[in-house]
Specification:
By secondary structure, this protein is mainly alpha-helical. The protein has four helices and two strands; from the N terminus they run E-H-H-H-H-E. Strands 1-2 form a two-stranded parallel ribbon. It binds zinc ion.
Length: 86
């Protein structure tokens, strides 16, 4: 299955996320993202289906989640992922 994941830095993602979610705690999101990136490096899997986690989604949702389980979409083409774990 061809997957097009667009790499994005934590800084850039947080900047755009905060624009859409101004009430969120910036520092908390950064901490969650770094934790999710570290977890993915260690091979963390989606707690529902066992696929590799989607670091951004995991950081936002707060549980080990892959793109499909989090969004309900069939494929994860053209979505963002933190560049360190692309
Ligand atoms: Zn899943």
């Amino acid at each position: 299955m061809p997957v097009t994941v667009i790499p994005i830095s934590i800084d850039k993602f947080v900047a755009s996320y905060m624009k859409n979610n101004p009430k969120e705690h910036r520092q908390g999101i950064i901490i969650n993202l770094k934790a999710a990136v570290a977890a993915k490096h260690e091979g963390a899997c989606c707690s529902q289906c066992g696929q590799p986690i989607w670091a951004i989604g995991t950081a936002i949702a707060g549980w080990n989640a892959c793109f499909t389980c989090l969004t309900g979409e069939a494929d994860d083409s053209e979505d963002y992922e933190i560049e360190q774990v692309c």
